[in-house]
Amino acid sequence: MQIRGKGLYVEVSGPEDAPPLLFLHGGPGGSGCYEFLEAQRERLSKSVRLLAFDQRGVLRSEALTEADSCTLEDLVEDCEGLRNHFGYERWSVLGHSFGGFVATAYAHQHPTSVEKLVLDCPALDFNLSAIYMLEKSAVEFEKLGDGERAAQARALVAADLSAQERFNQMVTLSLELKEHRDNLYWYRPVPGYFGKMIDESGIAEENWKRTSAHVEKITADPRLFESLLPLLPDLRCPVLLVRGESDSITCDVQAGAVLRDVQGSEQIIIEQAGHVPAVEQADRFAEVVTKFLLNLY
Length: 297
Prior knowledge:
By secondary structure, the protein is of the alpha/beta class. It has 2 domains: 2-125 and 192-293, Rossmann fold (3-Layer(aba) Sandwich); 128-184, no CATH class. Helices cover 43% and strands 14% of the residues. The protein has 11 helices and 9 strands. It has helices spanning 34-44, 72-86, 98-109, 126-143, 147-158, 163-174, 193-201, 205-218, 252-261, 277-280, 282-293; strands spanning 2-3, 6-7, 10-13, 20-24, 49-53, 91-96, 114-120, 239-244, 266-270. It has a 7-stranded mixed β-sheet with strand order 3-5-4-6-7-8-9, sandwiched between helices. A two-stranded antiparallel ribbon has the order 1-2. The longest helix is centred in the middle third of the chain and has 18 residues, at 126-143. It is globular, with a radius of gyration of 18 Å.
């Protein structure tokens, strides 16, 4: 559907009269909403009206041209455009990883639009998340007997760098883990998981490739590297923070800020899950989210 001049791929499931829940996928870019829906479409849509979309320029949404804008502001306003399109006065929002960053910015910028907020392993401060990833990367390099790269990771933690510089260098260095990089994201890595997911998705290769333009444009937005932690005291909706027990993105500093600064916030740690509890512990994830949205706690 056309939202703010761009074609967005949107999936809607669940009873029409159920509480609406917007899902914002991570990345930036990533697998769009495809991976999440494969795990959670049937589970969550039993009790909520689940709306999920590929962010502008991602996967099945319209490809971005060189002239197209793709900033944090665009992603936030795309959410509001979708809410207006579907005619909801308020809805709840679930943001995973980078999607948690967008969801928090959206709830802050449009407080009357968001009923409840679920932050699933969110990155609310890219500098803190990069530091956390570097620390975990150092451990993985040590397991591989690569003391040189472990030392590089720890040096980047201590270095006087901007958030964007540290994040970019973290991504570059962590890629040196190759197939062992999955250990940063999964409690129990599944060899070849992403390749198999792509092959079985039935989505054309060109769609997967188009996401790179989204990543390039959104990571050029300096707002992405400004911490959202100072905005937390202004949030006026209930917040559920969901973390996998071995998550590598939401460090204790970020989690502590949510629990301290957001009135009515709560945290649930999902055991035997890493950064993607919606996939690794799909039943448990759906249970905690549904209970929060339906006031069953």
